[in-house]
Specification:
- The protein is an all-alpha fold.
- It contains nine helices and no strands.
- Helix 4 crosses helix 5 and helix 6 runs antiparallel to helix 7.
- The protein is globular.
């Protein structure tokens, strides 16, 4: 997806005299992918329909389609639910969260650590909620 590592781009930003110089050299490495574009990309990669993703994520149909059309900015938990429904790995989940302009999962936070564990072990949304509930953490499905 990205041609250069983030650390390389960070170093390049330190060396240029203007942002325009940086942009001219690294335009192809800058991302402007929106959440809805990334969701559709991952859905296509997984061979899943939007309808099935929304149902598996246990999100209201109308609301879910608005997210996929870029008409609604979802919460962090909704993005996590969509990621789990698509069975994305942790790296792609973090990319979705970034694209949604919300905090990435943070392993020092107990709730986030549980979600990371569940993603790494390819658990279903219900399985994630069972662990969250047993640890007295807020569940993903209300």
């Amino acid at each position: 997806m990205y041609k250069k590592a983030t650390s390389e781009l960070t170093q390049a930003l330190k060396k240029v005299n203007s942002y325009e110089d940086f942009e001219a050299l690294h335009k192809d490495d800058l991302t402007q992918t929106s959440l809805d574009q990334l969701l559709k990309h991952y859905a296509g990669q997984a061979g899943l329909t939007i309808y099935n993703i929304i149902n598996t994520a246990e999100i209201d149909q109308s609301y879910g389609y608005k997210i996929f059309r870029g008409q609604h900015k979802p919460s962090r938990d909704i993005i996590i639910k969509l990621s789990i429904a698509m069975k994305l790995n942790l790296q792609n989940t973090q990319r979705l969260l970034k694209a949604g302009q919300v905090n990435e999962l943070y392993p020092r936070n107990e709730r986030d650590a549980i979600i990371i564990f569940a993603i790494n072990n390819n658990m279903s949304l219900r399985q994630v909620d069972e662990i969250l509930y047993s640890r007295k953490q807020e569940t993903l499905v209300s």
